[in-house]
Amino acid sequence: MCFVELVNLSHNYNGQEVLRDLSLSISKGEIFAVIGPTGAGKTTFLRIIGLLEVPSAGEVYIDGKRVPRSGKERLRMRRRMSFIHQKPQVFNLSVYDNIACGLRWRGEDKNRVAEKVDHILEVVGLKEYRNRNAQTLSGGEVQRLALARALVLEPEILLLDEPTANLDPIAATEVEEIIMRIAKQRNTTLLMATHDMSQGQRLADRIGVLFSGKLVQTGNPIEVFHSPCNQDVARLVGTENVLEGVVTANKEGIATLDISGIAIQAVSDSSVGKEVYACIRPEDITLLIADTSQPPAIKSSARNCLRAKVIHIAHLGALSRLELDCGFRLVASITRISAEELNLQMGKEIHAIFKATAVHIIERKSREWQDVLIP
Amino acid sequence: MAEIERGVIQAVHLLVSLDREVIEISARSLWISGISCLLSSLICLPLASLIHFHNFRGKRVLINIIQTFFSLPTVLVGLFVFVLFSRTGPLGELGILFTPTAMVIGQVILVSPLLLGLTISALSGVSREVVDTAISLGADSFQVIWLVLKEARYAVLAAVIMGFGRAISEVGCAIMVGGNIKGFTRTITTAISLETSKGELELSIALGIILLLVALIINVALNRLQQR
């Protein structure tokens, strides 16, 4: 059942197109994450659904009803949802009054307000701050206050704009847990904008990818992360290797590609002569030290084994990111411990191994949407 | 020098003994300026919200004009009210010239631009994000305005007190439209003006001290509020 529906939505802001011709249906209880680079229009997308902004063109339907552009009915619809902004603002009132505002505006009676607010204070762990002025809270506490203020309204639709962007990892996990638990309990429809890809992957039922105001791909997290529809989405979801190539052979669904003169194999139906992008996630590449004059002796199910030379190493916490030269530039990601065990250094000759299934093929289509969008 | 010394001693005596005339004049001053300030607030706070929350052509110009009227000369307001309510004037039939009512009207006109301008700038101090937050939590337009006024309460209060200060300290308008009638329209400032010209420095100095005391009390109260 379709609960939130956007039809041909476009929005201009100061003469600039922020959203263009966006259509989307979201069902009740669904968790939908919109990802995209900064400035792609994620916040505007949420603000329009949250009825904070009137779109320049197109319609929003909520629960089957068209949302009017102003008036009482719009207010009534807005009161069925709540919005947590990226940088939450507190009112210069006590923590209690901050949370009670929304309920009072809805005309709830005093005892019910007190009951609900005290309950939610406990849920988010702000009970002992009840009577403090909200402006004395720390960043993490403000985020939890914002969460309480939104959840206490028991919204049917909860909109979250980068809900954990300003939090440390532990606090972020806590906030995520509270949101997910309550959303599941109440069958809340959740829409969130995030640039944290793993958050989108972890929490969402469905992901939409927004690029320069256009929804270029929607699908479940696995589809979006493993089968990005174009090279920009591929880069956005962390596929660092997006290689240009041509299909030179295709035998029973295994295509052979020519990438800068090197042959690699991929599972794909693309026919011979097609110009394609080969996308390989860095963590799908295994490295092996071997006598580089011969192919490695170890048997492997991986079809691709390329000679490579390490040209750059960067240690990122528990992982190491390696840039390899194997006729083309290839980025691989391995644990730091393995990197040390393999004694990897700049200039070292190794083998890079990856499966044919690890290569995702995108056919190089006309780039019309990009020509329009990217100035 | 000796005159001033005598004046201060006399003033202290008048104050300590709660001289009836001094008390009466002071109370009238506080009363008239208080009413003016209250009326002006009732007009200006909603009006300021209206101007702040609406975008229209010439808004910037309007605010500039309002700010220009901050320095409206008191005698000019006095002249305007005098002409309006004088026997041959357009509202002469009301017969309120030389009454406290006329003084209140004059002070409202005098104080309103100040209150209006300062309230608009107080409201501008509340960020767009706070307004957005309120809207997204389900506030209707009236609830948004009320919340923003509450958010800006200290700055709004400061504006009201500034207005009161201007009302109680002005003399030009009060003397022109009030007439400084003893026991009826005589206020602190008009009394000082008259007594001084009569050479009665003691009463003048006593009233001057009271005026400053009122200002002091208001300031202390305001500071207390802002520190909370």
Summary?
Chain A is an alpha+beta fold.
How is the secondary structure organized here?
The complex is a heterodimer of chains A (375) and B (228).
Chain A: E1 2-13, E2 16-27, E3 31-35, H1 42-49, E4 57-62, E5 65-66, H2 72-78, E6 81-84, H3 95-105, H4 110-124, H5 139-151, E7 157-161, H6 169-186, E8 189-194, H7 197-203, E9 206-211, E10 214-219, H8 221-226, H9 231-236, E11 241-251, E12 254-259, E13 262-267, E14 275-280, E15 286-288, E16 304-316, E17 319-325, E18 329-335, H10 336-341, E19 349-354, E20 359-363, H11 368-373
Parallel strand pairs in A: 3-8, 3-9, 6-7, 7-8
Antiparallel strand pairs in A: 1-2, 1-4, 4-5, 9-10, 11-12, 11-14, 12-13, 14-20, 15-19, 16-17, 16-19, 17-18
Chain B: H1 2-16, H2 20-53, H3 59-68, H4 74-85, H5 100-124, H6 128-136, H7 141-151, H8 153-169, H9 172-178, H10 188-198, H11 201-227
User: What is the name of the CATH topology of the largest domain in chain A?
Assistant: Rossmann fold
Q: Can you summarize the main beta sheet of chain A? A: 6 strands, mixed
- Identify the quaternary structure here: heterodimer
Number of separate structural domains of chain B:
1
> Which percent range describes the beta-strand content of chain A?
35-45%
Cα-to-Cα separation, first versus last residue of chain A: 39 Å
Describe this structure in words.
The complex is a heterodimer of chains A (375) and B (228). Helices cover 27% and strands 36% of the residues of chain A. By secondary structure, chain A is of the alpha+beta class. Chain A has 2 domains: 2-231, Rossmann fold (3-Layer(aba) Sandwich); 239-363, Beta Barrel (OB fold (Dihydrolipoamide Acetyltransferase, E2P)), CATH 2.40.50. In chain A, the strands form 4 sheets. In chain A, strands 6-7-8-3-9-10 form a 6-stranded mixed beta sheet, sandwiched between helices. In chain A, a hairpin with a 2-residue loop joins strand 1 (2-13) and strand 2. In chain A, helix 4 (110-124) packs across helix 5 (139-151). Chain A is elongated and about 80 Å long. Residues 368-375 of chain A have low confidence and may be disordered. Chain B has a single domain, classed as MetI-like fold (Orthogonal Bundle). Chain B has 11 helices and no strands. In chain B, helix 5 packs antiparallel against helix 9 (172-178). The longest helix of chain B has 34 residues, at 20-53. Chain B is globular. The chains are: A alpha+beta (375), B mainly alpha (228). At the A-B interface, helix 3 of A face helix 6 and helix 7 of B.
